[in-house]
Amino acid sequence: MSAKIHPSAMIDPSAELGDGVEIGPWAIVGPRVTLADGVCLGPRVSVVCNTRIGPRVRVGEGSIVGGDPQDLKFQGEETWVEIGAGTVIREYATVNRGTSASGKTTVGEGCLIMTYVHLAHDCHIGNGVIISNATQLAGHVTVQDYATISGLNGIHQFVTIGSYAFIGGVGRVNQDIPPYVKAVGNRLYGLNVVGLQRAGFAAETIAALKRAYRLCFNSELNLTLALERTRAEQPLLPEVARFADFLETSSRGVPA
Predict the structure, then answer these.
(1) Which residues, listed in sequence order, are joined to residue 153 by a DSSP beta bridge?
(2) How far apart, in whole angstroms, are the C-alpha atoms of residue 51 and residue 178?
(3) Cα(46)–Cα(65) distance, integer angstroms
(4) Which residues does the annotation mark as catalytic?
(5) Considering only CA atoms, which of 218, 221, 220, 210 is closest in space to residue 243?
(6) Counting runs of H as helices and runs of E as strands, what totals does the chain give?
(7) Does domain 4-143 have CATH number 2.160.10.10?
(8) Boundaries of every domain in the chain
């Protein structure tokens, strides 16, 4: 299947286009860009340079992917953006290239990045992540698989948001958010039970995570003792182990 390229689009000769690519009016595809099969770029999209976009990715009108990192330490070194298969980036989002810190900014497969979202340099977004309108991620943020971030959030640099976490809207997040929980800003609101049920987690797994959450955040034990008690439970399910490992290794600390 041949590409469908609007006559007003500008394509650098070094760009590689897969089968069935669609490029809308006034779009720009710069040097060292790869668009895999079925990629669709809307009107006025700019894929600046050094970007690999996977199959069936859709990028909405006015979005800018692969722009320079907004980092004073950046000295023009070769860095990249990589976007996984089936991800949707809506209108006027921005995804900056990485810096020498990690070499790239990455977005996984099957993500939904909504309108006016900003992903700064060296962000690493897992698979199945949803980031809602006008949320802004600073540099070096990690969002693990299947997390959901509601709109109008500001995520501080170097923060990690755990798998299947749900972040409510209109907040400032400057601490790590553990997997499987609900949070608004830096305050936790229990386990993300509805999200886990929708994702098909077994009832016994959800119950075990509830016990771990209560020990770590709703008991009189300090975190070290709470984690010891959590790990002493038999059997220690993989999800509970992930929850405990996250709390132990958090670099920015988790909300109390």
Answers:
(1) 171
(2) 30
(3) 6
(4) 121-122, 139
(5) 210
(6) 4, 28
(7) yes
(8) 4-143, 202-249
Give the C-alpha distances (Å, rounded to integers) separating 127 from 73, 75, 85, 158: 29, 30, 10, 19
Nearest to 21 by CA among 33, 4, 34, 46: 4
- Distances in Å between the Cα of 86 and the Cα atoms of 48, 57, 116, 154, 163 are 20, 5, 19, 25, 19
Q: Which residue is associated with the tokens 């038999």?
A: 234
From CA 126, how far away is CA 119, in angstroms rounded? 13
CA distance 128 to 111: 5
Task: Summarize pLDDT for 137-194 with one digit per residue, the tens.
Answer: 999 999 999 999 999 999 999 999 999 999 999 999 999 999 999 999 999 999 999 9
Helices (H), the chain: 193-198, 203-217, 223-232, 238-249
Tokens found for residue 99: 């810096």
